[in-house]
Specification:
Blueprint (H helix, E strand, L loop, with lengths): L4 H14 L9 E8 L2 E5 L8 E5 L3 E8 L4 E5 L11 E8 L1 E4 L7 E2 L16 E4 L22 H6 L9 E4 L5 H10 L6 E8 L3 H14 L5 E6 L5 H20 L3 E7 L1 H14 L13 H9 L3 E2 L8 E9 L8 H9 L2 E5 L1 H5 L12 E2 L8 H7 L2 H15 L7 H16 L10 H12 L11 H15 L1 H10 L4 H22 L1
Parallel strand pairs: 8-12, 10-15, 10-16, 11-12, 11-13, 13-15
Antiparallel strand pairs: 1-2, 1-6, 2-5, 3-4, 3-6, 4-5, 7-9, 14-15, 16-17
């Protein structure tokens, strides 16, 4: 078969017309130094801060120091396989984390990779871990309560959806117990919870996950675990990853609660990274931008405007103090960023007052707007009465003969403190809180011995559940105490109190 020159020419012409050369330029560099989870790279001319970099063997890093002749990068994995001269590629985007409903009920690490042994997470969507916080116009004021189920907090230091409330105190004062109870209390309230464990022991995180599973809280909770055995970079990005996962749900109009446990260890991880990158140290050896590190994280908590779906992200950061010193560098920084703080005191904890909330130092800058009207009605003077009690108790130590009114106030203060005690893993519905606080603040318990108050409370709820279930339903429906409810509640309290006193004697 002979092929003519015309045919050959037409084939060549067609090939020339259809020829397209896909040239993909990759900005790359070479490793010039590696060690301690830090890597210095030469040749990345257009690198961005926070950009994801790819090393051989699918190891990744995050660019942090953009210097004149090299890029300082922290490794998000093991540095054993990386050596001097290795090729490093830019990926063109900052660190991303997978988001979506498939993460609910799972335990993942800082990069969104599952660590619970339940198989891979099938998520088609991802978000950058660093996103600019919503602006003023995109927000609305915090007005919907987020019930913690803890009497001392819901009554005196209310938390609203979209608020940032700091939980601060020494180690072993019940900070983590308080947030675990808050997550357990969100069951059936259409709130998605995210628990970020930073720098904790693996056994501690496993214990928390086990508690959530037993209480049925994993059905609406995501746990992000960056334990003490993880590298500083992974501990550093953990809260940002958790926040991005929470923002995905917030943008869909849902309510999200995120716990950062705790930001003290997060600050230490950032300090470690910064010192290894040879950044100049400041106060307490923390780098100068440590305030900004926490502010850009916590400012992402918001209650979005109705135009944007009305979703909310409520942040409860935890800070650990040393010997109750709230004036240290990191505590003062975070106090100034948040909308209030719940201070847990060692002395109260060891004296048996649990949760050990110091109502004098604790404050919520959102206030009564994050409470239902019924709670405002019964708890309005609670903080004042406790402050008066503390003052009188200090005075009574030196006085031998006290007036009847002083004795009455001291007795009432003791009863109120006893009422505010609560067992762990037993959050309480807001209706029950309103009923028992109404009984205490309206002097219905003045004849009850202080040692019997907890027993009185337990049996009171049993009595209300069996004899007056309609009162709790009315409080829940109307959200306030009108004359009808007050009359019914007073009558029920009197009936039960007289019955309890007759049995007591």
């Amino acid at each position: 078969m002979l092929i003519g020159p015309e045919e050959i020419a037409s084939v060549i012409k067609r090939e020339i017309v259809n020829y397209g050369q896909d040239v993909k330029a990759v900005d790359s560099g070479n490793v010039i130094q590696v060690g301690d989870g830090i890597c210095r790279i030469y040749g990345l001319k257009h690198c961005m801060e926070g950009e994801l970099l790819e090393f051989p063997n699918k190891t990744y890093g995050m660019a942090l120091n953009l210097e004149q002749d090299n890029v300082g990068c922290v490794l998000l994995g093991n540095d054993r396989s990386i050596k001097e001269g290795d090729l490093v590629k830019r990926l063109g985007h900052i660190v991303n984390v997978p988001v979506g409903d498939s993460l609910i009920g799972r335990v993942v690490n800082s990069l969104g990779i599952p660590v619970d042994g339940k198989g891979p997470i099938l998520s088609s969507e991802s978000r950058p871990i660093e996103i600019t916080a919503p602006g003023v116009i995109e927000r609305q004021s915090v007005r919907d309560p987020l019930q913690t189920g803890i009497k001392a907090i819901d009554s005196m230091i209310p938390i609203g959806r979209g608020q940032r409330e700091l939980i601060i105190g020494d180690r072993q004062t019940g900070k983590s117990a308080l947030v675990v109870d808050t997550i357990i209390n969100q069951k059936g309230k259409n709130v998605i919870c995210i628990y970020v464990a930073i720098g904790q022991k693996q056994s501690t995180v496993a214990q928390v996950v086990n508690t959530f599973t037993e209480m049925g809280a994993m059905d609406y909770t995501i746990v992000i675990s960056s334990t003490a055995s993880d590298s500083s970079p992974l501990q550093f990005i953990a809260p940002y990853s958790g926040c991005s996962i929470g923002e995905y749900f917030m943008k869909k109009g849902k309510d999200v609660l995120i716990i950062y446990d705790d930001l003290s260890k997060h600050a230490v991880a950032y300090r470690t990274m910064s010192l290894l990158l040879r950044r100049p140290p400041g106060r307490e050896a923390y780098p100068g931008d440590i305030f900004y590190v926490h502010s850009r994280l916590l400012e992402r908590a918001a209650k979005l405007s109705d135009k944007l779906g009305g979703g909310s992200l409520t942040a409860l950061p935890i800070i650990e103090t040393l010997s109750g010193d709230v004036t240290a560098y990191i505590p003062t920084n975070v106090i100034s960023i948040t909308d209030g703080q719940i201070f847990l005191e060692s002395e109260l904890f060891y004296s048996g007052q649990r949760p050990a909330v110091n109502a004098g130092i604790s404050v919520s800058r959102v206030g009564g707007s994050a409470q239902i009207k019924a709670m405002r009605q019964v708890a309005g003077n609670l903080r004042l009465e406790l402050a008066q009690y503390r003052e009188l108790a200090a005075f009574a130590l030196f006085a031998s003969d006290l007036e009847k009114e002083t004795v009455r106030r001291l007795q009432k203060g003791k009863i109120l403190l006893e009422i505010l005690k609560q067992d762990q893993y037993k959050p309480m519905s807001v209706e029950k809180q309103v009923m028992i606080l109404y009984a205490a603040t309206h002097n219905h318990l003045e004849n009850i011995r202080v040692s019997n108050v907890r027993n009185y409370e337990e049996r009171f709820f049993q009595y209300m559940d069996t004899h007056h279930r309609d009162i709790a339903a009315l409080i829940n429906a109307r959200k306030s105490l009108d004359e009808e409810i007050e009359e019914k509640l007073t009558q029920a309290i009197r009936e039960f109190t007289s019955e309890f006193l007759s049995e007591e004697h």
